[in-house]
Amino acid sequence: MESIGWQIRVDMPQALVEALYVRDAAVLRPRSVPDLPALLPHVNGQTASDVLTRLASEQWSTWWELLLREPTHAVVEDRFLTTVPELRGLVAGLHGDARRYVDARKRELARRRMGSPLEGRIVDQVERRQRRGLPADFRLQLLEMPLSQPGSWRLDQDTYLVSTMLCTDEAPYSSWLADVLTSKF
User: Fold this and answer.
1) The predicted structure's pLDDT at residue 140
2) What angle do CA 156, 34, 102 make, to 5 degrees?
3) pLDDT at residue 101 above 90?
């Protein structure tokens, strides 16, 4: 079997950011793991009735968990939303604004990542410090989210949610990523 080499992928999945947009714009109060801070730039929220907010918050928590587990987020989104009319109505009403918000954040990410990605330099530093290379089939997926606080949340062995605030602060991001990489040796 041929080795794929090491791979670090940074992405901002549309479905995840759209879900967070809906959470903030509809002022939902879901119980979710991880419990993530509000988006940045902030989204103007409009509260619905208490009953709708409660139902949609519960539905949103389930939707979020499914999105985090499913690599093909769009399939989960379509399948799940057909079963939850309260949340489906909010998502449909906010879809255009959410899409514009996500597109703007993805353009910011693309501009910031042009040139030599910081992750490659950090891998080089860790390999020199460890005096050996990363494991041959090393993979790491970083799901960048435009959140109002710096932080990272481990989803599984190879996947982390990482706030844009952390990713854009080079010293703390470098330190965090070096620690993650070192733990893989």
Assistant:
1) 92
2) 95
3) yes
Pairing of strands 152-156, 139-145: unpaired
Angstrom CA distances, 160 to 43, 152, 168, stand at 24, 7, 16
Q: How many residues does the chain have?
A: 185
C-alpha–C-alpha distance, residues 70 and 7, integer Å: 20
DSSP letter at 33? S
Determine contact, residues 24/37, Cβ cutoff 8 Å. no
Neighbours of 83 (CB within 10 A): 11
Mean pLDDT of 113-138: 76
Beta strands in 51-117 (DSSP E): none
Does residue 182 have a pLDDT over 90?
no
pLDDT given for residue 149 in this prediction:
97
Give the global pTM: 0.90
Could you tell me which of 160, 33, 21 has the C-alpha nearest to residue 95?
Answer: 21
Indicate the residue type of 107: R
Q: Show Cβ contacts of residue 63 under 8 Å, excluding neighbours closer than 6 positions.
A: 19, 76, 77, 80, 81, 84, 87
**24 contacts 44 by C-beta, under 8 angstroms:** no
Token duo for residue 78 = 């379509």
When pLDDT is cut at 50, 70 and 90, the band that residue 1 belongs to is very low
